[in-house]
């Protein structure tokens, strides 16, 4: 009887070691994925063309370009037939930006001009960072504590591009 118990324990140990070895050799680590599953069904997302003064328009366009320049399937583009919108307005809320899904390929993003104007020391970067972050939600990314555009404690005045962690998560999701 004791040899059977030892045999089971040894087999369990070998199985655990094999799984651990597989994870270490493949680099697979599901703990690093931060998906919220409430984003869009595909990574190619269109939105109605927006028209703001250049103070807003330029950094907003840069946010699209920053995601589109990654090695991920992310593709944000303007389309006059889209139901998706990005709105800049002064809201009484305390947030900088918010994302809401309105369908499999539809989103509403709001940027809060009141809080952004109040807190930005580098206005263009702050706007770009906020919109890149909201686009991350559209790509099914959730908040996290990594070096990431999805980190709510990031420096919005300097971090304006998706980080390697963000791109990796998008690639894994799509």
Automatic annotation (TrEMBL):
Keyword NAD assigned to the entry: answer is no
- What domain of life is recorded for the organism? Bacteria
Coiled-coil region list:
none
What spans are recorded as compositionally biased (Polar residues)? Answer: 152-161
Q: Which UniProt keywords apply?
A: Signal
Region: Disordered, residue numbers: 152-174
Q: Which residues form the signal peptide?
A: 1-33
This protein is called what?
Matrixin family metalloprotease
